[in-house]
DNA sequence: ATCTCCCGCCATATG
DNA sequence: CATATGGCGGGAGAT
């Protein structure tokens, strides 16, 4: 609530901050260096203030309030000075620092609200900005590019950008994190460090090159811009040039933070990784320097955003500049509604969702330009319909479903899938579902609860890979080569939204659509045995140098609770399997041709199927949480964060279970009765080209996001799956004991009789169409069995590489600043507290 | 000396 | 073709 206000105020001040006569637009003469001996006049006082404040500004951003107030003071002084002294006395020479990109960015950001409401859609006119901020255009580009990489702005046209604020942040970061994981950045970092380490003794040989290339070659030769559905680049044509290098670099940089466990990245490492991606081993000195320069540029902007802050890592080599992530924590890939779900009622406030309907669709279809989507109105209708459902349900007396746990879980999961589909997938699918499924009146309610269940399931999977996982010792249960290229034909890129399942994009490679019939990219929620959990404690600390970090600035180390909060949630589940996932990526070229190929394939496929759910985007975020800014606010650490731990970690006791106890949560495979649905060609939406389509992401997605399984389900169901085809179990689950013995069947809408502890084949007759599903579930509810010792798991999670007694990973310097040793798990205090419960 | 990173030339992309 | 973008790296201020 306060944020907006503050912002408004700030922007005002800042806008007027710059003295009109201050400096000519041209670079002021450098001389200055005024007489050192300055009398204690108001002016000198001011100067002091400026010099004193200036350097800290960036770092001080930590404490928003403080910062703002000081800034204002500063500015006030400034004005005062002006009035008093007028022009004769040239104001303090801008002194490089006052022209820093960071400061500039600060001003830039001050002009716009963090969470612009639908109404106040703010456009950014570069001309105005450059003028008002008194800067060269070039600089603005730097800022805007970085912001664009975070989807905080997007280009509309020449000189025109639109401001999104932080609305997209959760999605963006989540997406970036995912991509980062898929990119094996963790390993790459490891490798760089390792090489560095080995270089000490064997400075000459590039023996490790093989290692590098082995990892590097297979890796994505080129990763393009990560887009967000609904925020795509307007000029689709642009999508495939070397351009936006800064943008991409920025994204990658952020990815590094998001994937590394102590969220600290040194410039050196970052630069190397970012370079290494393009040119293999081009230890070109100049190139490196340039990269560093750029990283500084980016870092400055990110700092202004308070996403990172400068620190220093000290190791044998000495003190190296690095940055620490202090931005919003990326939430685990869980369904939305969790927040609501925690409360007794699961239905989100209607008042919020209704008014933003318009906005919703607006965002969905980026307005002008060729409409990439053509079902504007229908989608609105869909949204409306969904909201109506909500309304009904809300008003309706809630009658908690009574059923056995297993059955409940089963059913709720299923319903949840439906819900997800309807919510995210889009009109056609939604219609199909509404048409063919019988959905209980209180399906929402059930679903909400089920999502909680899902979360539990999902969390139960030990996807935690702390920090240094020696690449050479794969965990036994690790599904290596899980995604054969041939099977990766369906590229499913899902960008979930933590709070509200905004903007999901489904990306299907049409040319290979047929292969879908034989492959179900992970049709399970969160499989994976917990075997991994035990293998989590990582060692291999050898490669890691002891690193301590210290606050880059010498600000008072006021124990900022918010900071801790922000930094916490940390030891959350990191997809271990992700590191093993195939990294196949479609080329930009393919992407560019995507649409065309769509057409062609449509024809070639003939009647069999013409359905390319390539991108229905329903930014429900804006619909249901439009005004939830306060919660997702950057300072959200408080309330929201407090809740996250409950879901973000398997060790918080949500599903307390020991590794041995954790069995399987196997989502049923489906036997699908034929269902031929024909969709008119024009029902095929244009494919939103996602800059980055990871073919293997389907696995990742499904593993992390229940919704993806729903999508898979639909893909199959819609007709991509021939009659009677038995969807092959996902390789990931191979080791899972899928018992499919008894077959208790039941007919009647939604009335399965999955019984606790009993596994069986169930057939569901759903809806008037008589759609028949054969479930071959194997629910082993043991997964949900409550354990009495969550603590055990906890400990195994947080064992430090050096051993249980290697000391706390968090210590304090004499000056009160944090000291973080790399190679150990960074366990924020907050987290520990939570865990202690 | 090293860390930072501003400045603005100039190649490209856009319209 | 005129502009808008933005890659790039020299070199200077900050430490």
TrEMBL record:
GO terms for cellular component: RNA polymerase II transcription regulator complex. Its main location: nucleus. GO terms for biological process: negative regulation of DNA-templated transcription; positive regulation of macromolecule metabolic process; positive regulation of nucleobase-containing compound metabolic process; sprouting angiogenesis. It comes from the Eukaryota. Belongs to the E2F/DP family. It comes from Tachuris rubrigastra. Residues 96-165, 241-327 form the E2F/DP family winged-helix DNA-binding domain. PANTHER family: TRANSCRIPTION FACTOR E2F (PTHR12081), TRANSCRIPTION FACTOR E2F8 (PTHR12081:SF40). This is Transcription factor E2F8. InterPro entries: E2F, E2F_WHTH_DNA-bd_dom, WH-like_DNA-bd_sf, WH_DNA-bd_sf. Keywords: Activator, Cell cycle, DNA-binding, Nucleus, Repressor, Transcription, Transcription regulation. Residues 576-585, 806-823 have a biased composition (Polar residues). Residues 1-44, 198-219, 459-483, 554-585, 792-823 are annotated as: Disordered. Residues 198-210, 566-575 have a biased composition (Basic and acidic residues). GO terms for molecular function: DNA-binding transcription factor activity, RNA polymerase II-specific; RNA polymerase II cis-regulatory region sequence-specific DNA binding. Signal peptide: none annotated. It is found in: Nucleus. Residues 465-477 have a biased composition (Pro residues).
């Amino acid at each position: 609530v306060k944020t907006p206000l503050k912002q408004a105020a700030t922007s005002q001040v800042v806008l007027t901050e710059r003295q009109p006569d201050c400096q000519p637009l041209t670079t002021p003469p450098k001389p200055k260096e005024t007489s050192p001996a300055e009398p204690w006049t108001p002016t000198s006082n001011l100067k002091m203030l400026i010099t004193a404040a200036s350097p800290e500004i960036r770092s001080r951003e930590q404490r928003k309030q403080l910062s703002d107030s000081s800034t204002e003071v500063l500015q006030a002084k400034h004005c005062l000075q002006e009035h008093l002294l007028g022009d004769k006395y040239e104001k303090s020479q801008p002194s490089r620092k006052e022209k820093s990109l960071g400061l500039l960015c600060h001003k830039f950001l001050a002009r716009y609200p963090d969470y612009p409401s639908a109404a106040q859609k703010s456009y950014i006119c570069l001309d105005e900005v450059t003028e008002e901020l008194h800067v060269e255009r070039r600089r603005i580009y730097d800022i805007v590019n970085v912001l664009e990489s975070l989807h905080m702005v997007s280009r509309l046209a020449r000189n025109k950008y639109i401001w999104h604020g932080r609305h997209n942040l959760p999605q963006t970061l989540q997406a970036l994190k995912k991509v980062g994981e898929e990119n094996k950045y963790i390993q790459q970092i490891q490798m760089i460090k390792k090489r560095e380490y080995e270089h000490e003794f064997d400075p000459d040989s590039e023996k490790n090159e093989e290692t590098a290339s082995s990892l590097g070659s297979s890796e994505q030769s080129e990763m393009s811009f990560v887009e967000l559905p609904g925020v795509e680049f307007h000029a689709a044509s642009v999508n495939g040039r070397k351009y936006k290098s800064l943008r991409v670099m920025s994204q990658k940089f952020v990815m590094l933070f998001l994937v590394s466990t102590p969220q600290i990245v040194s410039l050196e490492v970052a630069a190397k990784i970012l370079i290494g991606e393009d040119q293999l081993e081009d230890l070109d000195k100049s190139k490196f320097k340039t990269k560093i320069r750029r990283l500084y540029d980016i870092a400055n902007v990110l700092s202004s955003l308070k996403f990172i802050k400068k620190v220093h890592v000290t190791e044998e080599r000495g003190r190296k500049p690095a940055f620490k992530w202090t931005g919003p924590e990326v939430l685990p890939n869980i369904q939305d509604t969790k927040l609501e779900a925690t409360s007794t009622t699961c239905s989100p406030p209607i008042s919020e969702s209704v008014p933003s309907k318009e906005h919703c669709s607006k965002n969905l279809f980026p307005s002008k330009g060729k409409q990439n989507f053509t079902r504007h109105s229908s989608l609105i209708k869909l949204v409306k319909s969904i909201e109506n459902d909500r309304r009904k349900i809300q008003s309706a007396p809630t009658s908690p479903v009574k059923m056995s746990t297993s059955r409940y879980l089963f059913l709720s999961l299923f319903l949840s899938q439906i819900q997800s589909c309807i919510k995210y997938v889009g009109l056609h699918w939604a219609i199909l579902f509404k048409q063919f499924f019988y959905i209980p009146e209180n399906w929402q309610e059930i679903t909400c609860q089920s999502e909680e269940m899902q979360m539990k399931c999902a969390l139960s999977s030990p996807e935690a890979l702390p920090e240094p996982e020696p690449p050479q010792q794969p965990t036994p249960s690790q599904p290596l080569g899980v995604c054969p290229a041939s099977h990766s034909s369906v590229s499913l890129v899902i960008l979930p939204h933590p709070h509200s399942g905004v903007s999901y994009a489904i990306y299907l490679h049409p040319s290979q659509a047929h292969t879908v019939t034989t492959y179900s990219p992970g049709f399970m929620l969160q499989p994976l045995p917990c075997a991994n959990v035990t293998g989590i404690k990582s060692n291999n600390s050898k490669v890691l140098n002891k690193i301590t970090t210290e606050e880059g600035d010498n600000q008072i180390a006021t124990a900022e609770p918010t900071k801790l909060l922000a930094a916490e949630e940390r030891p959350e589940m990191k997809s271990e399997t992700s590191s093993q996932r195939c990294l196949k990526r479609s080329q930009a070229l393919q992407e560019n041709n995507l649409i065309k190929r769509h057409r062609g394939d449509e024809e070639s496929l003939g009647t069999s199927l013409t359905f390319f759910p390539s991108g229905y985007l329903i930014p429900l975020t804006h619909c249901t949480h439009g005004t939830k800014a306060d919660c997702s606010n950057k300072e959200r650490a408080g309330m929201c964060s407090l809740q996250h731990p409950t879901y973000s970690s398997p060790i918080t006791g949500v599903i307390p279970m020991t590794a041995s106890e954790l069995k399987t949560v196997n989502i049923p495979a489906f036997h699908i009765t034929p269902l031929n649905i024909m969709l008119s060609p024009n029902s095929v939406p244009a494919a939103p080209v996602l800059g980055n389509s990871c073919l293997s992401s389907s696995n990742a997605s499904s593993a992390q996001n229940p919704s993806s399984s729903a999508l898979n389900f639909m893909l199959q169901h819609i007709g991509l799956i021939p009659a009677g085809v038995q969807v092959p179990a996902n390789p990931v689950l191979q080791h899972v004991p899928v018992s499919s013995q008894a077959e208790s069947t039941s007919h009647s809408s939604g009335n399965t009789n999955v019984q606790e502890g009993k596994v069986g084949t169930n057939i569901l007759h759903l809806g008037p169409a008589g759609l028949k599903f054969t479930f071959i579930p194997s629910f082993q509810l043991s997964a949900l069995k409550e354990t009495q010792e969550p603590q055990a798991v906890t400990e195994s999670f947080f064992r430090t590489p050096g051993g249980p007694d290697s000391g706390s990973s968090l210590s304090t310097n004499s000056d009160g600043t944090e000291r973080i040793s790399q190679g150990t798990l960074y366990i924020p205090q907050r987290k520990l507290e939570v865990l202690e419960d």
